[in-house]
Specification:
By secondary structure, the protein is an alpha/beta fold. 45% of the residues lie in helices and 17% in strands. The chain contains 24 helices and 22 strands. The model has no long low-confidence stretch (mean pLDDT 89).
């Protein structure tokens, strides 16, 4: 930062000028031309958009601020790096997709065991899990695919894995870094984790999982070093183990097109596109999270389904709920910016206005009967105290920058009001003093003036100098008279001259105090944000069910999948107006473990297979499903082997890719899994292909026993 610009020098300037299309200039370092330094810059008020472009290209941007007032500094103004922006540490709303989380991940491996940690610094979410055993690396890759991080830090064995390196570069396309060994020190990382989350390792469930706490501690330390501020909004570490959510590997997510299409990578044409009727950014992110992590507990699934059913039947209550949700702001990300000191006044106004619907929202939930609404009511705070404090403090239309002043409302601070009165009413005060002094002294020619040398003064013509009282101190002699000062005038001078500067300092201090007060309530805000997001998703599910003619599925642990008149949720929406022919399905763990689908090209074989997988997944996230009726025995994993593709860059042919994916299914599928095999044994001779297909199917049916 140099005044009103952020400048880059030397090689940084050359790089930035090329990437950002900036004009390259020079700065003299000495008399010789060889000592001219290339430089380029951007205005400080629009720097965010330039930083966003650099980060999107994979660069890391260090921001160096002026740490003292240039007017008061002696010599060079002191500067320091206040933040390093990387793809995984972005908190600015303009750089983020409001509908998805922005995770920074860390993977640490030792002795065949891996610890994984994921933090979204823009919301404060923090998750951790462990992968071990023969298929540990497959689980690591699957979890990374689930969270789709923007940036990944690796240490220990994870830093040496070629398979992980290839996955990060080619399939996840994220920024990947290697961490130094000291970053994963067992003692330091354990202390960091305990300090951050306020609980010992045993209470966090990590005592016997050193890889996890070393991963989590290294991630926390990295985030603190990059942000240069605390992470007080990162309060809860959610540790989960395999078996809590449905397993979906990278292939299954891609082939089922859960959040984006395979070909174009677009939301339109995905399951997320069909189900997303959310009204808030928090709800949109929560829906994506639910899609990535379908539940395995029938009790939790049915709690969601009961809530959706009540909303589908109560159209007036649902419409009121949706109307209120439209006015809710993104509490999670605004709070993160407040806690990290990156918030401006408009963020506070957004938070204050966004709290307005909460009392009505609480009242609306209180009238609903499903058990899940009772839980959400307990978590949802109306935040009226924060809303009132923000409204009392901040003007309705604040300036964009906190440096400009004019953001604190009149009446909030008596001292601030006095300073404003002095700055705006200084001339009136001088006229009053002049009138009072004329009356007291009887000197009709007395006047109050100002110059830069002496400041404010009282000037008396020579004919009246004998009438000047002793309280006047002579300051200057003129040919026409004398100039004096008084204690009152000096005091006023000090007030007026320093008032504007003190005004800005005081406004900034009051703003900082308000940020601190809100930061202290971060747990309340985050709990409320989570409750609002869940409400938003449930209301969205009800809306989708009514619009698309979905039914409430029966979800249990029977192992049976019985669907009557099932439809593909996405294709029927893409072909609106065209007839979609529904089909029945019966799969169980006994006589009907396998369906063999045959038919010509374009007959709908792949559509039929995928629609059943999607219906199972929709049921397990708590959504109604496209069918006349459905009974879904909880599925612990969905595996897909779909289509022909090669990975020649990694030395794998179509056949090799296919066999690798089949091997993963054979190793990881269980009796409760659902497997889709869309043509296997291609890329080789007819009889070899048929032999492979038959042996694979026989093994799955006889040895694994899944659907």
């Amino acid at each position: 930062r140099l005044g009103d610009f952020y400048e880059m020098f030397a090689d940084d300037a050359k790089l930035a000028s090329h990437e950002l299309d900036l004009t390259l200039t020079t700065r003299d370092r000495g008399k010789e031309k060889s000592e001219q330094v290339p430089m380029c810059g951007v205005p400080y008020h629009s720097a965010e958009s330039y930083i966003a472009r650099l980060v999107a290209r994979g660069y890391k941007v260090a921001i160096c601020e002026q740490m003292e007032d240039p007017a008061l500094a002696k010599g060079l103004v002191k500067r320091d790096i206040t933040r390093i922006v990387t793809p995984g540490t972005v908190i600015e709303s303009s750089m983020l997709d409001e509908s998805r989380n922005n995770y920074f991940a860390c993977v640490f491996g030792e002795g065949g065991r891996y610890g994984l940690s994921f933090c979204d610094i823009s919301t404060g979410a923090f998750y951790a899990t462990q992968a071990e055993g023969a298929e540990a690396m497959e689980r690591v890759i699957s979890e990374l695919g689930r969270f789709a991080p923007a940036e990944v830090l690796r240490g220990g064995d994870a830093a040496k894995s070629e398979e992980l390196t290839r996955t990060l570069q080619e399939r996840l396309s994220c920024c990947a870094d290697l961490g130094a060994d000291e970053l994963f020190d067992p003692q330091e990382t354990a202390q960091l984790v305990e300090k951050q989350f306020g609980r010992p390792l045993d209470e966090l469930g990590l005592t016997e999982r050193p890889e996890v706490w070393r991963s989590a501690g290294a991630l926390l330390r990295t985030l603190c070093e990059l942000q240069k501020t605390g992470l007080s909004h990162v309060r809860e570490l959610e540790f989960y183990v395999s078996g809590r959510f449905m397993e979906l590997d990278l292939s299954a997510r891609r082939n089922l097109e859960l959040t984006e299409t395979m070909r174009a990578g677009e939301k339109r044409g995905s399951l997320l596109w069909v189900l997303d009727h959310t009204k808030t950014a928090m709800g949109s992110r929560m829906l994506r999270s639910w899609l990535e992590k379908p539940l395995l507990s029938p009790k939790r699934i049915n709690a969601r389904l009961d809530a959706v059913e009540e909303l589908t039947k109560n159209s007036i209550g649902r419409d009121e709920l949706v109307h209120m949700l439209q006015d809710v702001s993104d509490y999670e990300r605004v709070t993160a910016r407040i806690v990290t000191g990156a918030a401006n006044c408009r963020d506070l106004v957004s938070l204050g206005n966004g709290c307005e619907p909460l009392p009505e929202l609480r009242a609306a939930i209180g009238g609903l009967h499903a058990s899940m609404f009772g839980v959400l009511l307990d978590e949802l705070d109306d935040l009226s105290d924060l809303r009132d404090e923000i409204r009392n403090a901040i003007v309705d239309e604040p300036p964009f920058s906190v440096r400009e002043g004019g953001m604190i409302r009149d009446g909030y601070s008596e001292e601030l009001d006095q300073l404003r009165d002095i700055v705006s009413g200084g001339k009136g005060t001088l006229a009053r003093i002049e009138a009072e002094e004329r009356e007291k002294t009887g000197i009709k020619t007395l006047r109050v003036g100002y110059n830069r040398v002496f400041g404010y003064y009282i000037e008396v013509s020579r004919s009246y100098t004998d009438s000047v009282p002793d309280s006047f101190t002579r300051k200057q002699t003129l040919t026409t008279g004398e100039r004096y000062i008084t204690p009152e005038l000096k005091e006023l001078e000090n007030k007026i001259l320093g008032a504007n500067e003190r005004l800005l300092v005081l406004e900034h201090q009051l703003f900082a105090d308000l940020l601190s007060a809100i930061s202290a309530e971060v747990i309340r805000i985050q709990r409320t944000a989570s409750a609002v997001a869940q409400l938003d998703v449930l209301a969205g599910f009800a809306e989708a069910a009514l619009q698309n003619n979905y039914v409430m599925p029966t979800v249990d642990e029977s192992g049976v999948m019985e669907i009557r008149e099932g439809r593909h949720p996405v294709i029927e929406q893409m072909l609106k107006g065209s007839l979609f022919v529904p089909n029945d399905t019966l799969l169980d763990e006994e006589e009907n473990r396998m369906l063999l689908i045959t038919g010509p090209n374009m007959a709908g074989k792949s559509t039929y297979m995928r629609q059943n997988a999607l219906i199972a997944l929709m049921a397990q996230i708590g959504s109604f499903v496209p069918a006349a009726s459905a009974r879904i025995g909880v599925v612990d994993a969905i595996f897909t082997r779909v289509g022909a593709s090669d990975d020649l860059a990694a030395g794998q042919s179509t056949f090799m890719v296919e066999m690798t994916e089949v091997a993963e299914i054979l190793k990881n599928a269980t009796k409760e899994s659902l497997v889709i095999l869309d043509e296997i044994g291609r890329g080789t001779s007819t009889f070899d292909g048929m032999s492979i297909a038959r042996s694979v199917v026989e093994f799955i049916c006889e040895n694994i026993g899944c659907k």
